[in-house]
Amino acid sequence: MGFFQAIVSFVIFSCLSLPHAIANGNSFDLRKQELKCNMYQGKWVHDNSYPLYNSSACPFIRKEFDCLKYGRPDHLYLKYRWQPSNCRLPRFNGQSFLKRFKGKKIMFIGDSLSLNIWQSLICMLHAAVPNSNMIRQELNNNSISSVEFQDYKVTVMLFHSLYLVDVDEERIGRVLNLKSMKNGNLWKNVDVLVFNTWLWWYRRGPKQQWDYMKVEEKIVRDADRMTAFRTALTTWAKWVDSDVDTNKTRVIFQGISPSHYNGLEWNEPGVKNCLKEMEPFSGSVYPVGLPEAAYVVKEVISGIRKPVHLLDITALSQLRKDAHPSFYNGFKAMDCTHWCVAGLTDTWNELLYAALLS
Ligand SMILES: *[C@@H]1O[C@H](CO)[C@@H](O)[C@H](O)[C@H]1NC(C)=O
Ligand SMILES: *[C@@H]1O[C@H](CO)[C@@H](O)[C@H](O)[C@H]1NC(C)=O
Ligand SMILES: *[C@@H]1O[C@H](CO)[C@@H](O)[C@H](O)[C@H]1NC(C)=O
């Protein structure tokens, strides 16, 4: 806590010295000071210039996320901008993104929340260059979906992986191997890697994608799920330190995405989903605090020696109980886990863009 407060007061101090830097016309100092700002601390403000694109004109939105197409009547959720307390996020510029990443590959690796942010980034880039050539491909036996902006030689990929670590088909059944991450060899030469895993760690019954877990060389039926999550993340963290050349590859971890099925969390006891939520939670402090998994993520990342950026979207997304599809998807199934596209995941990409610029 002391460390955290130290950062906060440091940021406030830089902010106070801002007019001095402007007076001296010292834009370099100014830029440095902006980077010291914690982008993830702030509030949601209404902004009529949002959303960043017209979702009906984006050819790639899957039926899980296309809320307007499936009849969502309220549009206010599209009109919010994230305003950090001590600086401003750079406005997303799709053309300059494509120019900056010319010749590069960007890969999102993880579960359906990776799919969610990947779709949003493609729509944001497509909106900037709607008439440029795009090639869509499924690769590696459908574990990779890829969209190439051919005129810019930028490829934005999605690697489907629920746990990051391996699930091996063995004679006894599917074994979740917490200490092995064979796909790392496919990932490590990509220019920008954005990892995420969490959603599937507590799933049981038919939704559980493994039959046994391998822990410390022992095959077990089950184990404490949070401990297993931590072990798997640590396997990933050790791989970053041993295998990734961070001079060539930027490594990002996309933080825990919150869901909204329990109104107690936002002071509406008895509410069981996000169907009627049309506005963000007001205020910048969500009543229940961060989920335990978010602390596990922070701890494991703080143990990595190489530079890894945490795309720390948990707290700011907790405030967005209004930004889920609820019933407005192609399945008419209640979903307060994923996010409408356009919508919140565009902000995640604005934050990703800001992190990649620094
Ligand atoms: C959004 O795109 C659709 C399809 O291209 C178009 O019909 C519609 O007029 C656009 N809406 C706005 C507000 O630009
Ligand atoms: C491709 O995936 C399918 C379904 O998961 C699997 O049955 C098949 O063995 C895979 N093929 C290869 C070459 O890995
Ligand atoms: C990365 O760059 C730093 C600073 O230039 C250098 O000291 C280090 O050896 C480089 N690492 C690799 C793996 O090339």
Automatic annotation (TrEMBL):
Q: How does it sit in the membrane?
A: Single-pass membrane protein
Name the InterPro entries on file. TBL, TBL_C, TBL_N
Q: What is its main location?
A: membrane
The keyword Chloroplast is assigned to this record: no
The Trichome birefringence-like C-terminal domain extends over 89-354
Q: Which UniProt keywords apply?
A: Membrane, Signal, Signal-anchor, Transmembrane, Transmembrane helix
Q: Where is the Trichome birefringence-like N-terminal domain?
A: 36-87
Q: Where in the cell is it found?
A: Membrane
Superkingdom of origin: Eukaryota
Write down the Pfam families for this protein, in alphabetical order: PC-Esterase (PF13839), PMR5N (PF14416)
Where is the secretion signal located?
Answer: 1-23
Q: Which family does it belong to?
A: Belongs to the PC-esterase family. TBL subfamily.
Return the PANTHER family for the record.
Answer: PROTEIN TRICHOME BIREFRINGENCE-LIKE 38, PROTEIN TRICHOME BIREFRINGENCE-LIKE 9-RELATED
Protein name per its UniProtKB record: Trichome birefringence-like N-terminal domain-containing protein
Recorded source organism is Hibiscus sabdariffa (roselle)
